[in-house]
Design brief:
34% strand; alpha+beta; two-stranded antiparallel sheet; 58 residues
């Protein structure tokens, strides 16, 4: 349970890997806790970038 950093709802959060931020000093992708709605929205956003062949893993 926590507050989603995007929509600010207090709800159950899931860990989401942020490949757009690259890896940390241990070679692991940064993680962020998001609510389910924002997680789905972010996945759609990343898929749209892939569709238009934009590099989202800079």
């Amino acid at each position: 349970m926590g507050q989603c950093p995007i929509c600010k709802k207090r709800t159950e959060l899931t860990q989401h890997h942020l490949k757009e931020l690259g890896k940390d000093e241990k070679g692991v992708y940064h993680k962020l806790g998001l609510c389910n709605d924002c997680h789905v929205w972010h996945e759609k956003y990343v898929n749209a970038l892939k569709t238009f062949e934009l590099n989202f893993e800079k």
